[in-house]
Amino acid sequence: MILTVTPNPSLDRTYEIPNLERGTVLRATGERMDPGGKGVNVSRAVAAAGHRTVAVLPLGGAPGALVADLLAGQGIETAPVQIAGTTRSNIALAESDGTLTKINAPGPELTPDESRALLSAVAAHARTADWIVCSGSLPRGLTPSWYAELVTRAHESGARVALDTSGPFLTAALSARPDVVKPNAVELAEAVGRPLASVGDAVKAAEELRALGAGAVLASLGADGQLLVSEAGTLYGAASVAAVRSDVGAGDASLAGFLAAGGDGEDALTAAVAHGAAAVQLPGSVMPTPSDLDPAAVLVTADVPLDRAITQQGSPR
């Protein structure tokens, strides 16, 4: 079972438009409404792959109730923590050429009691979890060290932890030794304090995160592939994509595939790349099902193309 923790979930509305023109009336050619937040997306992808998942998340107001209804409609088990604030609503504008513009709301501020209730909800399900996924930004009211405390408690319960966050939330949690961290290129560069021009630069940065406490680093480099840097060595994976429709949640789908395939080694990296490649070809934040995957199209090798330029830097949280 994969338990996900999303401290700052959202109600995501995605509109497909021909192109974005400022100051004009835009008419959408398609629209979707999905439960959002990185951990929520991981749960959705795990469920779509046919595995059990439980989503722990704070919910409040009408948007929070709608998020709960949407998750229930997808057959996802939730452990909601009711809060006084209102769950945020995010907007994504997806252009026909694959360009995505996102407007992310800040979200509610959690009280100390709500913070403790969230940790208690995780503890109540942790002992039945194989992996605990801690994903996304922290809402107002939670300090950067909150993830570190969560990682420590998860390890005490015997679960492995995958951490997908950025900035001070990531660096503060490394000392708690998460089993896997999953930055994109921008987040990896931010964590080491310098730009990354090549895959080789990304490998060195990942090794630095391991030296700071990360057990393994699964780094998404956008169209330039993925890296898995662990105690066993470094693997590189890539797959060609005919057309990108939306990259919302693609990294989360990739992490879900990685963990569902065991969370270590060549098979897990193959699953991660296959899930990510499938996700970018689907609308909005739709998560791929097994029929969408093409693992045969994935190349995974220990012969890492160190000189390959990173052409798609990704986007920060």
Structural description of this entry:
The chain has one domain: Ribokinase (UDP-N-acetylmuramoyl-L-alanine:D-glutamate ligase, 3-Layer(aba) Sandwich), CATH 3.40.1190. With 317 residues, the protein is α/β, with parallel strands linked by helices. Strand 6 and strand 7 form a beta hairpin. Helix 1 packs across helix 8, helix 6 crosses helix 7 and helix 8 packs antiparallel against helix 9. The chain is built from 9 helices and 14 strands. The model has no long low-confidence stretch (mean pLDDT 93). 51% of the residues are buried.
Keywords:
single chain, 317 residues, alpha/beta, UDP-N-acetylmuramoyl-L-alanine:D-glutamate ligase, 10-stranded mixed beta sheet, 4-stranded mixed beta sheet, 14 strands, 33% helix, globular
Report a brief summary of the structure.
With 317 residues, the protein is of the alpha/beta class. It has helices at 38-48, 61-73, 112-126, 146-156, 167-173, 185-192, 199-212, 250-260, 265-279; strands spanning 2-5, 10-17, 30-36, 53-59, 77-82, 88-95, 100-103, 131-135, 160-164, 180-181, 216-220, 226-230, 233-238, 299-301. Helix 1 (38-48) packs across helix 8 (250-260), helix 4 runs parallel beside helix 5 and helix 8 (250-260) runs antiparallel to helix 9.
